[in-house]
Amino acid sequence: MPYPHSAPTGLGQVAQQAAQVLYQHRLVSTMQLHRLITPHHTRSEFLRRQLHTLRQAGFAEAVGRRSAGQTQLLWWLTEKGAQAVEAVGLLQPRAYRMSHEAALGPLQEHTLAVVESGAAFVEHARRLGHECGPLDWSPEIAHYYRDESRPGEELCLVPDAVLNYVHTEAKKRTLLTFFVEVDRTQMTIARLAQKLHAYAAYYEYAPQPQTTKGHRGPRRQASMPAWRYRYPAFPRLLLVLTGASEDRLARRIADLRSLAASDPALASTPLRVGVTTLGQLRDCGPFKSIFTPVLGTADPVNVWLRTPLAAAA
User: Fold this and answer.
1) 258, 285, 84: which is closest to 167 by C-alpha?
2) Among candidate residues 40, 239, 51, 25, the one with its CA nearest the CA of residue 136
């Protein structure tokens, strides 16, 4: 997918694309960048040269990470690089700044796993002739809401990513939007299930219209749900599990389903929630029957189904 000419200026197109991706996703490995930006190159040497050009210009930094017996570099934009990208105005500004300490910190693996989940969508979209590029998902977008069970509090739902995907079939184009949550087995099943409550509450939340001070008339009807101001349809929620063996992740999926089924607060929610593993997502792609519904039947489904989870290509 072509990218518009963008900052940092004076650099090659691939270096500028890399700067955009690093700005959007904060921390990305060399091989992830290669798969996202230069998949048409058999080897990654050209991309590596572009990244080192960014580094020499003071726009990017990197830190080493040992994985599978090899050292790979993880890249992020410096303040100078972030300001250069922001100056062009093509991407939604982000206040977050990566640092050397954060790149080596406890969120490193989670950040890379979120990028890996998005990359799986990009690679399978490329293979299928659909549309989903490296900038078609945004990490940690805040969604504010209120919950009747917690009166007076303003709550904030922050998905790991909001991903947009254009599915094409027989000349019909359909925009799919997903909330993506990545779990590396770092939280308890109860904590993971609790996230479903936040999504269910956000689905139901409709802001109350403002009333004039001192007005004593009947209470006005609530406006439409808050999510309708952002999305044409409520995004499907996809849980992507990683960080353990496939057998352990399968048990985790079964436990999550069991806990959700016994929760009366989730019994009537219209949420479409599917769970899979990062390995399945990478190997099979999102349009195979790899998503197990968290609510309802346990039969794996395809996220493009127009029934409770989504759909079949």
Assistant:
1) 285
2) 25
Query: How many Cα atoms are found within 13 Å in the side-chain-facing hemisphere of 88?
Result: 17
Q: Give kind and range of the element (H or E) at residue 188.
A: none
Q: Specify the pTM.
A: 0.88
* pLDDT (tens digit per residue) in 95-137: 889 999 999 998 999 999 999 999 999 999 999 999 999 999 9
Residue labelled with tokens 């490193």: 108
Write down the pLDDT at residue 212: 53
Per the CB < 8 A criterion, the answer to whether 257 and 186 are in contact is no
CB 16 within 8 A of CB 2: no
HSE (side-chain half, CA atoms, 13 Å) at 50: 20
Q: Quote the CA–CA distance of 123 and 36 in Å, as a whole number.
A: 8
Reference 113, options 147, 67, 148, 149; nearest CA is: 67
CB atoms under 10 Å from CB of 37, counted, come to: 25
Length of the chain (residues): 313
Q: What is the pLDDT of residues 140-179, one digit of tens each?
A: 999 999 887 777 788 999 999 999 999 988 888 999 999 9
Tokens of residue 281, six digits: 């997502």
Q: What is the pLDDT of residue 312?
A: 32
Q: How many CB atoms lie within 10 A of CB 147?
A: 16
